[in-house]
Structure formats: C-alpha cells, structure tokens
Amino acid sequence: MTYTASTALLDALTEAGVSYIFANFGSDHPGLIEAIAEAAALGRRAPMVITCPNEMVALSAAHGYAQATGRAQAVVVHVECGTQALAGAVHNAARGRVPVFIFAGMSPFTQEGELPGSRNEFIQWIQDIADQRGIVRGYVKYDNEIRTAKNIRQIVRRAMQFAHSDPKGPVYIVGAREVMEEAVEPAPAAGSSSSLAPIALPEQWVSEIVTALARAHRPLIVTSYLGRNPAAVDELVQLCNRLGVGVLESVPSHANYPHGDMLYQGNQWNHPFQNKALAEADVVVVIDSDVPWIPTVSRPPSWAAIYHIDVDPLKQAMPLWQINAKGAFQADAATALRQLNSHLRTIDLDAEAVSARKRDFGRAHSERAATLAAQEQPADGITPEYLTACLRRRIDPNSIVLNEGITNYPVICDHMAWSKPGGFFASGGGSLGWNGGAAIGFKLAQPDRDVVALTGDGTYMFSVPSTVHWMARRYRTPFLQVIYNNRGWKAPKFSALAIHPDGYASRAADLGLSFDPPPDFAGIATAAGGAFGRAVKRVEDVEDAIAAALRAVHEERRAAVLDVHLPGL
Predict the structure, then answer these.
(1) Quick one: which of 165, 167, 292, 429 could link to 196 by a disulfide (CB 3.0–4.6 Å)?
(2) Using CA of residue 380, residue 386, residue 390, residue 395, what is the dihedral sign?
(3) CA dihedral over 395, 455, 234, 199, signed as positive or negative
(4) Residue 266 belongs to domain with CATH number
(5) What DSSP string describes 465-480?
C-alpha cells in the first residue's frame, strides 16, 4: 500500500464534502483508479463513482446535484479530449453560477520510463497539447495544475473556495500521470473550504431604495435567479406584500416568487412585444438577473429610476452589457432584502397608496390568470398549454421540475405556475441538453422527490439520451421526461423570421430545420435504459399517458419518457 497523490486527491475531495465523482476515465487515470479501488478494499471513505459514458452528461449531472444542494461535486474527464467533450455543459455551469470541481488528467511528460506513469500508449503523444487548461479558461473561476503530491489538499481547498464563493462557478484542475502516481506522506486534514461571506448593501442606499419603492406609483422587482436561495424568496415576498410591489421574472432559471400571489406579474423571455408591467414601472429594482429586459423590444420608461442588486453587477464575463441604473451594488440578494425589510419596519407607510398598488397589480394578475386558464382548454391537437396543465394537475406539488422547453420555456413557466422555491429550475445557461443529466443529479441529491424533466425534441437529442437512460437504470434514479415534440428546430425559425419577416426564409418550404421522419425518442430510452416509453399523438390520450408514466416511475422504479406530438414547424 502506497499513499499517492491520487489518494490525497480523494481524501481532499472527501474533506471538501464531495459525495460523488461523475467519471469518464481514460488512460491518464491509472493512479486515481487504483486509489479508488484501494479505498474500497480497505473501507476508507471516498466519494462514490458514477460512471458516465458521456462527459456532457457527467457535468450536467453534477450541475443538477449542485443546484439541489448548493455543494460542488467532482467531474473526472480524460485529458484534452474529455475536456472538449464537456461541450456546452461547462458554459451552462459558468453562466448558471453553479459550483463544480472538474479534474482532468494530462499526457505523461516523460517517455523513457523515467518515472512511474511514463508514456506507454501511442495516444499520449497525440493528446499532448500546449495549453489544455486554456480550453476552459474562459468558463471557469479558477484553474490550476497539480505539480506535486505535497500540496494537493491546499489546491483542492482553494479551488472549492472559488467554486462556492459568489458569483459561484466551475473550477478546473489538471494533473499528469507521473504526478498522480507520486508517493507522499499523508498530510493532516485541511478541513472544508469556506466560501466568502455574503456581501450586504451599503447602508446609505438602503433608505433610498425603500423610499423610492414606497413613493412609486408602479414599483417593480425584476429577477431571474434570486430563487436559488429560498431565504431570498421569503424576504422578497415580505417586501412586496408590505409595500405593494409587483414582481416580473425575466428568463427565470429558478422559482423566484409564488405565481399565485396577486403581485406576480408573469415572466418574459423572447416575447416580441413590450411587457406591460415593465412599460408602466416608475421604479425598478433588478435583483439577480443577467437579462432583465431586451431593450430593442421591451424596456422600462427612460425616466424610470432603476436600482441594480446582483452578485455580479458588472457581468464581468459578458463583453456587452448595460442598464441605466441609478445605483448598482454587488450584494447577496437575501442579505440585501433582509436589510430593506429591516428598514421598512422603522418607517410609516401610506397605507392607502399600498392598497392602491395592490389593487392595480391584483387586477393585472387576475386578467393574466384568466387568459392562461383559457389557453389550457383542450383543442383539436395537443397544445403545449394543455399538456403543461395536465402535468401540473398530475404531479406531486413537491416535485422538482426542470424546464428546457426552449420555444416552450414561457409556456412551461406560465402553466406550471410554480409557487415554492427549490422546485423549478432551468440550467441558467444557453447550451442545450442539460435536462437529462441534471435529472440524474437532482434525483441523487433528493431521492425522495419526483423529478420531472420537460424538454424540446431537439434538446432531447442534445442531452445524449442513450447515456442518460443507461445511467438512470444503473444508479436507480428514475424520473419522468416529457418531450414537447414539434418535430424540428423551432427556435432558429423564429430567429430567422424575426430578422427577415418577408424574406426568402418566410416563403421557403424547407429551411433545413425539421426532423423528418421523426426519431423514435421513447424507443431510444427504452433500448438504452429499459425506460417506460410512449408516443402520444391524440388529446384524449394525454392524461392516461401521464398516469401510466408516473406509475412506472413510482411502482416500477424506472424512468419514463413521453414523446408528445405538438403542432409541427
């Protein structure tokens, strides 16, 4: 038995609270594989290995686990090839501010047998590149190379501190075979890494923001991911109900505010029209939002007073970004809202003005609710509104719903009408295929809750369903996946027609965007993972199909896929 750098890495990850290694092993990992086998043989604590035949699914699973728990898990990939195969998942983790620890091996740096782990396979020359870390440097908060076994605990601790400090995100560490085989004396436990303390609003601005909201005729909160911390949602509900402030979600990746509350004014995505609540706002507080509005289409009035509170108000990774805020503050949402609520308790409010604002927002809320209810009625074909309403009525209110519906993002938000924080998620990024792996990560993190993944048909293929459903069976993480199948890429069509409404594309019979003939999506999941699978093409079959799929998840403990055919492109 030899204590190696690989053993030290396992110990450091365990100390950092890592429960799972989502692994796609390669020829660069013999030391790590040996250390894992040794730990199992000797009964030493180590994270559980989850075998992931595809790297993007591995990172998406870690992404989902972190969204459910707030804690980074480990993803292990193979040199530069496996790093590139992380694909868009590393973008999603970066843009979604999700903590993940990524480790990749490197090609050995000796070739004559000078050290244990020296090159002995032809690919180790082919896979040696000048700057492996540079592949992901634009997406990670921290990258480093393990050069000696002696300071691995320090490197892991520092990496985890970066990952868990706002704005959170992925970190990337590499180590060559010779280093990971190096023998070392066991070092004392370093303890878990502590993230930086939440940042508060400057006290002098607390009074100004509260006063501005209290005096406004139509004050509005705009948010996208405030709900990643349920405590922030509780504080926001208190603030809005005390003052009579409306809430608008913009591209929401979390459940940020109860949809049933009369102050909730809906959500906006790529809607090609001015949002009414935003147009009428005279004071706007943007809290935790990357895209609070799209200025060429919808924006607040030029004279509105705007305040911006965010963990990353500069949006440092975005070359072009601006809102004309009167004040912008780097602050934790829950902390800032707690400060505002505390100040509120020290002042007298105009009760009549608060009541008037609540009546106005309540009237708009009721009108919106009536419109949505009308959209949910059955039609000749299956509409996304009807499908989502059927799902809402059937699933457990304690379920976790994952939204990767793309052109149906807003429909799913509107008609799921989620009210409890911690139950509704999108990736937070813009690379498609997150939902399948994320469903496995969520189910591992919270096995007693149902996980329902709602996906477009193109996104379903991006998610690598053969890997996803093999893993779901192997690791007993059954979930319901519903495909909103319009048999093609609808989003690029919308984008083209938005810019060229009367161009050639508007008159073309084939834009190269359709999936014809359509794949057997349910059959893929059945073949790969023994999943329950059913194609649903008639309105009268929707309710029974959902019930049967949920029985498969609950009673048979296997994943279920419903391929629901909507009107096509």
Answers:
(1) 165
(2) positive
(3) positive
(4) 3.40.50.1220
(5) HHHHHHHHHHTT---E
Extract the runs of DSSP E, i.e. beta strands, from 165-211.
Answer: 170-176
pTM greater than 0.85 (yes/no) = yes
Structural domain contains residue 44: yes
Q: What is the DSSP string of 66-134?
A: HHHHS---EEEE-HHHHHHHTTHHHHHHHHTT--EEEEEEE--S-SSS-STT---STHHHHT--S-GGG
Sign of CA dihedral 26, 29, 32, 36: positive
Please report, for the domain that includes residue 498, its CATH number.
Answer: 3.40.50.970
Round to whole Å and give the CA distance between 371 and 385. 11
Closest to 327 (Cα-Cα) out of 210, 413, 198, 444 = 210
Place of tokens 């992380």: 86
Cis, bond preceding 519 (omega within 30 deg of 0)? no
pLDDT tens-digit map of 152-195: 999 999 999 999 999 999 999 999 999 999 999 888 776 667 88
Residue 416: which residues within 8 A CB-CB, separation 6 or more? 388, 391, 392, 401, 403, 424
Give the CA diameter of the chain. Answer: 84
